[in-house]
Every structure is written in structure tokens, then in C-alpha cells.
Amino acid sequence: MAEEGSVHVSNKQVFLKDYITGYLEESDMCVKTDNTVHLKLPEGSNGVVVKNLYLSVDPYMRLLMQKFDTHGIFSHFALNSPVRGYGVARICESGDPNFKKGDLIWGTTGWEEYSVLTSTDDHFKIEHTDVPLSYYTGILGMPGIAAYYGFELCSAKKGETVFVSSACGGVGQLVGQFAKSAGCYVVGSAGSDEKVNLLKSKLGFDEAFNYKEESDLDAALKRYFPEGIDVYFDNVGGQMLDAVVLNMKYMGRIALCGMISQYNNIDSREGTHNLISAIFKAVRIEGVQVHRYYPLYPKFLEFILPLIREGKIAYVEDIVEGLENGPAALAGLLRGRNVGKHIIAVASE
Questions:
Q1: Under a CB-based contact definition with an 8 Å cutoff, are residues 83 and 29 in contact?
Q2: Distance between CA atoms of 94 and 36, rounded to whole angstroms?
Q3: pLDDT tens readout for residues 45-81
Q4: Are residues 147 and 247 in the same domain?
Q5: N or C terminus of the chain: which is more exposed, having fewer CB within 10 Å?
């Protein structure tokens, strides 16, 4: 029998074999199972032991698999510890007075079946379970907060033009719908015809295009925005950002939320050559740092939960079953193989 404050389990885990350069391959990670794990909180700890239910597959994780300065926002993955990311979990044991055994939470956890979280800073108790728990890896979690407050930075007005890259991802699909609700004309880019059709048929974008079929991104943007772009929500960086700057309107706004195109080649990043246009056009460019908005999470829930319950917002998930499929899921995400928010279902609710 386990002593108080501890859990004896069999624990499947995903490890990074070594720090990498270039594209992430499934073989860069390995899955191990320890059948005799004793999970125990350190003496006096205010942490928790959790059973992970859903894990979020996010592009930023690639940055933590190499020696790259994240300016203290994230720390690199340790080679002898499980990969980390956002997830939904149920508490098995708690040393934190704010959480009790059986509570559901979301926040950073390990890519493993069970985790010991020595700190619960930036973890949130899940109070609303009348919506899918998996939503707390996406629309009700970090991506939702990034989309909502990142789009707020852009101060979009009715009638303005909005462009969203990686528009079918966990963040982009929400930004497009927020922009439509604000009365904007919205165009998204994605990496397949399937995603383009989804953006227009289910997610409400006015137009969308497959950037992989465009030999000239500048010309493509001029086709969809003949008078220019008021707001650009950037999830990819690189050549797309460079083309967008040329097509911004005077006093346009750009929110930098991600740069997926650059995560696999940090040592040889593409330069942005057209930034001088941002000076001439007085374009405002601001980074979206999601942690800044965590204190506003209750306000965000007040806004988004009614929309979900009333069916006024759509959210597309791409769920894979089993932690053993995690390495393939993350490697595939970075090649654009997911359709919607990519999630790993680890255990039943």
C-alpha cells in the first residue's frame, strides 16, 4: 500500500534522446515504460501528483529541443527527464491547499502518464466540465488565451482587413473567428487544400489559400488584399512575414504570436528584408507573450464559454490516441500534417 502523499504506478514517458538541429524526426524521441514507479511529493512540497489525461502538441516545443535563448520564458528540455508541455490532468495527491485529490487542472506537465509537479504556479483548476476536457489544451487553454488577447493587441475595427497565417492551427482558427465577429474581412493561409476548405466551410473565413501552391507570396497577398492589410496575426514568420510587411496599410498592426517556419533552423534563420516598409507605413509590431495574460483568464472564460455552449464558435481538434504516438504527432505537426489543434489522448477521463 502506498504511503500517504505517494502513488505507485507503471509510468510510460517520452524522452528527447539528444539536442537537435534541423527538422525534428520521430526517432529523435523515445518512449519508455517504468513498471515500478514511486511518485512522491518532496517533504513540505506544495506541489501535486497528477494523472495526465490530454497533452497539447505545440510548435514552440521544438525550440526547447535545442540550445536556444528563450530569454527566460521557457527552459530547455532536460535529456534525462520527460518532454514537457501543456496538458489536462487529474490530481492523485496534493500538497497544495488550493487543489485537492480528484481536482482537474490544466497547465504545464510532463509527457508521461503520471507527473510530479513541484510547483503549481500557472496551473488552473478546471471548474467547467460541461465542455470537452480536451478543450483545455486549446480553445480554453494557452492557445485560446493567446488568440483572444493577441487579437486584442491589434485593435481591429469593423470593416478592416485581417490576415491570419497557420490559420487552421489551435490559435489561428480562433483569431479568424474573433476577427469575423468584429466585422472584419478575414483571409487565412494554410498548407493544404483540405485545410483551406475547412477554413471557408466551417471556420467562417471569407477567403483562404494554400501557401504551398503560391510561387509568389507578395502577388498572392495582393490578390486577396488589393488595398492592403490592416491587421496581420503572424504564426509562421519567415517569407510570409516578409511578404506581408510589403502589403500592410498605413498604421497597420502586426501581432507576432509564433514563427513555425523558423523553429527547425534556428542556426540559419531566414532574415526579414522588408522591415523598412514598416517604418514608411508606421506599422506597429508587437509580440504576443501569453503568460502576461494569465491573470485575465477568468475574464477570458466569461467571454468564450457562452460562445462554446451556444454553438457560436467552432473549434477543430486533431486527436491521436496513446502517449506512444506522441513523437510522431509532434514531428508531424512541424510538417503541417495536423488538421486543427493537435492533441494526445493519454488516458480516459
A1: yes
A2: 21
A3: 889 999 999 999 999 999 899 876 666 666 788 887 8
A4: yes
A5: N
